Amino acid sequence: MTAFSLDPRLTADCEWLADLALCKVLLLKDANYPWLVLVPQVANCKEIIDLSDTQQEQFWRESAAVSRVLQQLFKPDKLNVAALGNMVPQLHIHHIARFKNDISWPKPVWGQHPAKSYDADLLAERSAKIVQLLNL
Amino acid sequence: MTAFSLDPRLTADCEWLADLALCKVLLLKDANYPWLVLVPQVANCKEIIDLSDTQQEQFWRESAAVSRVLQQLFKPDKLNVAALGNMVPQLHIHHIARFKNDISWPKPVWGQHPAKSYDADLLAERSAKIVQLLNL
């Protein structure tokens, strides 16, 4: 039994925002899109169906909460919600606010464009607003 | 209030396999990957969070069932589960069995390669096996 620890690539690519009952909420450091990542704090978990039924229910409640925050804050044309994990097998689920005028629309975001660095003020402001709306 | 009807593009690209309590189960006609699509039979639904809480719970139960069928039948290296919908806004969620030796690995499948036609026998056999394992 190994304890949960965040994959080093997720640590490098993301800003930690909050810990919910089950998941860590991370902001992906790519200013091209408002992009949150949920990571269940469960060791050795690769697929959603590796979680117990109770954990899956909690996972989707937290996914819905994060989706609602993105919708309220950014009024996107579409949300993209995806568990892929071909590169980083630790279970993580992307929640991305997409816009008809964003740089990759209508394609999926992965592999389209290099990440755009955040301005420090924007990163701080965006992070604070998201955490506030998560109502922790 | 409009009644639910399947988006014409999903109708064209997919083979209908089954109706579950909430979702249609479709097989995407691309022999490059075992690829199922769940479509909740709810009118005017674009995002997962447009579903009621009860519908969301049912949706994720059906998503888990479909994921388990793909895992049992194909023993993939990774499942990709994704609600994108930038092109077809009607809510639908992809469930794709991915392999380290598939044609797009480790990239996401969308926009990588044109769909590969199914051999009719393989399509019939695969469809029958999936429906059998769904235990309808």
The CA-CA distance between the termini of chain A, in Å, is 30 Å
Oligomeric assembly: homodimer
The largest sheet of chain A, given as strand count, sense and whether it forms a barrel, is: 5 strands, antiparallel
Element order of chain A: H for helix, E for strand: HEEEHEEH
**Mean pLDDT across all amino acids of chain A:** 96
Say how many strands of chain A there are: 5
Order of neighbouring strands in the sheet with most strands of chain A: 1-2-3-5-4
Principal-axis shape of chain A:
globular
Q: In percent, how helical is the residue content of chain A?
A: 25-40%
Please report the number of helical segments of chain A: 3
Radius of gyration of chain A: 14 Å
| Strand residue percentage of chain A | 15-25%
> Would you tell me the structural class of the helices and strands of chain A?
alpha+beta
Query: What pair of chains forms the biggest interface?
Result: A-B, 30 and 30 residues
Low-confidence stretches of chain A: none
